[in-house]
Every structure is written in structure tokens, then in C-alpha cells.
Design brief:
The chain is mostly helical and 244 residues long. The chain has one domain. Helix content is 52%, strand content 7%. It has a three-stranded antiparallel sheet. Helix 5 crosses helix 6 and helix 6 crosses helix 8.
């Protein structure tokens, strides 16, 4: 049985996450007085981010599924990698721009619920995250459970959206054993998303807790869900909404 029945009644507002991205671009063009044509309404990151130049280099990295016991929110992304400080700053700035767009994506959770490929990722990630928390001694409050699950579902959907963005730029993800080939900026984006969402959903997280664990911090569920949603979606095909 799914852990989030209350979320399954969300309205079907569009055919997936791609519609939310297209809507972002159309709104932006209308605000500038530009005509919205079928061609211009097709969302592309290169258009969306003209004001945020891509770094001179966005090196490929191997990305594996997150281990909740090894998540360190205060540790800089890719701290063990030999990345020059100037490039690290450029990657972080680029990731911040991408994160801003994801945070501003309208009705993201509803769009994920309407997408046949995205929603199973969200459900599976939620089940794993809550099971991990309970295994570590956290008790979930029945009345606060909907708020907790909705907050974590949104975090997961953001990770899914970031993965689709990566596939839009690089095509179908290449896997070597259990590691996916992504870009360094993705690691920065995941950390920045986690920082922003931990502050935003903190009341919902604590609303869903009946008993805290002495050995587990509930806020770790935020970066875990973002990273797990990102990783799981990379197993799928690139979003069909952007097919040429």
C-alpha cells in the first residue's frame, strides 16, 4: 500500500513536468511583451539562462544513489575532487540559477502526479525515505503525516526535474555499473536545492514527527529525497515533452 494516498487525489493539471517548464518560459515572455509562438513556447535551458552564462567547463562526474548515513549537508559538493576554486565558484553560480528556476516551477508536485514516469519515482522514494527514518527510531504522527509526505514528495519531484533537465542537455544517461554520468553542476544544484528546501519545509517535517530519534536528524530526509529522485529518474528515458 502506498504511504501517500492523500497525494494521489491531486488534480491532473498537465501531461508531466515538461508542461511546467514550458509554462515558465511562456510567462516570462508575456511579462516582457514578447509574442508566444509554438516555437518560442518550447522551453530550452539555453534560453532560460541567457542571463546566467554556463561555466567554461562542467566536467562529467560519476553519480551513485545517495546513502543517507553519508549525507553531510555542511560539506561542500565534490569536496574530494580536484576542482579549481574559480571553476567551483562558476559551477555554484550556475547551479544557483538552475535551482531558482526549479524552486519557481509552478504546481510542480501536481505535474509530477500527472506524469506516468515521474510519479512512481516519487512514490518509491517516499516509501524508502520514511522506512529509513522509522528504522532509525523516528515515529511518524498520523495527523501530521500528510504534511510530511507532501513536503518530501515536493523535494523528490524537484530532484526528478533536475534529472530531466540533465537528460535534456546530455541525452539518455550513461550508466557504468551503479554510477550515472552527470555533470559537476548537478551536485552543486542538489546541495543548493536541499539548503533552500530544508528551510522551507521544516515546519511540515516536524509536524509529521511523533517521536524524534536520538541518532537521526529528520532534515536529512530533504537532501536524501532530492538526490534519490534525481538518481532514480536518470534510469528513465529523456523527457518526451522535449523530443524534436
Amino acid at each position: 500500500m502506498s504511504l501517500i494516498p492523500s497525494l494521489l487525489v491531486l488534480a491532473v493539471l498537465a501531461a508531466g513536468l515538461g508542461a511546467a517548464l514550458a509554462l515558465l518560459l511562456r510567462r516570462r515572455k508575456r511579462s516582457r511583451g514578447e509574442a508566444v509562438t509554438p516555437e518560442s513556447s518550447t522551453w530550452r535551458p539555453t534560453v532560460q539562462h541567457r542571463e546566467i552564462p554556463a561555466p567554461a567547463e562542467d566536467p562529467p562526474i560519476a553519480w551513485a544513489a545517495p546513502d543517507i548515513d553519508r549525507i553531510r549537508p555542511d560539506t561542500p559538493p565534490l569536496a574530494g575532487e580536484a576542482i579549481a576554486s574559480a571553476l567551483r565558484s562558476a559551477l555554484d553560480g550556475y547551479a544557483l540559477g538552475r535551482v531558482k528556476r526549479i524552486l519557481e516551477a509552478p504546481d510542480l508536485l501536481q505535474h509530477a502526479a500527472a506524469d506516468a514516469e515521474s510519479w512512481p519515482v516519487v512514490e518509491a522514494t517516499l516509501e524508502r525515505a520514511l522506512a529509513l527514518a522509522e528504522q532509525r527510531g523516528m515515529a511518524i504522527d498520523a495527523k501530521g503525516r500528510p504534511a510530511l509526505t507532501r513536503a518530501l514528495a515536493l523535494c523528490t519531484a524537484q530532484g526528478v526535474l533536475l534529472a530531466e533537465w540533465r537528460q535534456l542537455e546530455d541525452g539518455k544517461t550513461v550508466w557504468v555499473n551503479d554510477a550515472a554520468r552527470v555533470r559537476a553542476s548537478d551536485a552543486f544544484a542538489i546541495q543548493r536545492l536541499a539548503e533552500a528546501m530544508a528551510r522551507r519545509v521544516l515546519p511540515d517535517l516536524f509536524q509529521g514527527i511523533a517521536r524524534r530519534s536520538a541518532t537521526f536528524e529528520v532534515t536529512l530526509l530533504v537532501p536524501y529525497c532530492i538526490a534519490q529522485g534525481f538518481t532514480a529518474r536518470l534510469h528513465g528515458d529523456p523527457p518526451r515533452a522535449f523530443a524534436a
